[in-house]
Design brief:
With about 130 residues, this protein is of the alpha+beta class. The chain contains two helices and six strands, in the order ααββββββ. It has one domain. Helix content is about 25%, strand content about 35%. Strands 1, 2, 3, 4, 5 and 6 form a six-stranded antiparallel β-sheet that branches.
């Protein structure tokens, strides 16, 4: 379970953050459902996560679907942001919980994101 969480979070880092800001290594990403999100949908997925972090009400589930591709059904993502927490060392942080599904493949993960001085969110830890 922890391995799946790590792989999914690493994949999320790839999809969400600029290369210089990525906090997790790129290992075994091909095992995550998230890699099945079509490239054309990645900007919309990034926007969905950013909106959940910036505007999402705590403990409120929001849903996103990728496009279906030939032979690949859509990827479904359910996000639930936690309440914002102010920390001395990392600033404003939020725990983001996700349920990711495609066909019978499902992943669950929880990742802490902390907001940087420029407003971007950076993965800072796994739970």
């Amino acid at each position: 379970m922890k391995t799946t969480i790590f792989h999914t979070a690493a994949c999320t880092a790839v999809l969400l953050l600029a290369p210089a800001a990525q906090a997790l290594p790129f290992v075994l990403l091909d095992q995550s459902v998230l890699v099945h999100i079509p490239a054309k949908d990645v900007p919309d997925f990034k926007s969905f996560i950013g909106k959940a972090l910036n505007e999402g009400a705590a403990d409120t589930v929001t849903e996103w679907h990728s496009s279906a591709r030939a032979g690949q059904p859509a990827v479904q993502v359910l996000l639930t942001p936690g309440a914002g927490i102010a920390t001395r060392s990392a600033g404003q942080c939020r725990l983001l919980s996700a349920q990711v599904h495609q066909r019978s493949h499902a992943e669950s993960w929880k990742v802490w994101f902390c907001q940087q001085a420029d407003g971007r969110w950076k993965i800072s830890g796994l739970q």
